[in-house]
Amino acid sequence: MNIFPTQKEESQPSSSLFVATQDMLREEFYRCIETLHPALRADLLLALQSPGKLLSQTAYLPALPAGSWALLVFYSGLCVNTQVSQTTLYRRLYRTGVAVECFICALDLLDDVEDGDQTPIIEAIGIPRALNVATALLALAQQALLSLEDTSPLLKAQLSLVLQNALLQATEGQHRDLVAESQPASDFTQQDCIDIAAQKAGSLMSLACSIGVLCVEVPEEVYQKFAQIGHLVGIAAQLDNDSHDLYYLIHTGNKKDHAQPYPTTVKTDLIRGKKTLPLVLAHQQRDDLSEVLSPADVATRQQLFSEAIYTSWGVSLLYQERALECLRQIEKEYAISPELRALLRMSN
Hints:
About 70% of the residues lie in helices and about 0% in strands. The protein is mainly α and about 350 residues long. It has a single domain (about 15-345), classed as Farnesyl Diphosphate Synthase (Orthogonal Bundle), CATH 1.10.600.10. The relative contact order is 0.10.
């Protein structure tokens, strides 16, 4: 198994497995925004056209299909359904998937603003409009859930509550991350980094894996299993992404390569004092990282960060293995589709 995707893997398009479902989800999104003012609608469309988002034609690295959050909702719910009619279920899952896609896009915009990242959408519409788009997307997410047809008021309330709980958890993790910027790395342990990853990424992946299952009104223990697998996959993915970003930083140095497809936010992380796991592990080996960030000390930098990357990636693999074991437990009762396996990065 490769630690990071190969050049061939990086260039692969979204799987054709998802095309029909992506089209239906996009149609549902268009219905959700059709009554909005054209100026706001245009900016919402622009936000959802960012790489990896539902309206994008470009898969976000590493090779997940566009609209993967909405797709995860759809295929999680689909695989456990035994009682809801197909017509009703599909309507619920399409709209709930769109709600989660809007929700995640809103948080991504807010995260970009808070971290000072100059992403294409921020450069295109500016911070004030980006903040307003994020607000609109959060409102759309709630509206989509509360306007579900053929759904009891109780289930609507449950879906809304699950979304709000995920918002609170993710916001708490983001706040801890922001506060940590002004604190010394020596104050942080490996577990602190994992806890923040669990709140920021684990809570969101848990939401995507479980809210579709909630649409099917399965027993509580089934819902909890899907929430747990999402939690574990989210932590694993966050730790892997942090390691992945740092890997590409130390292999490209301080060169400004505009053709480089990988995010350079880790450079901002270093400047801002972010407390990602590989950076905290590196700090534990060298108190002052600034002295190894210059081009003149490439060998020392690569050795120091490589050790931290591989340790962090090893922790990520442990969480991925725990998620796989959780999936095996679910498979004792339900058939896991190839689509859901691909979205969870657990293909056979």
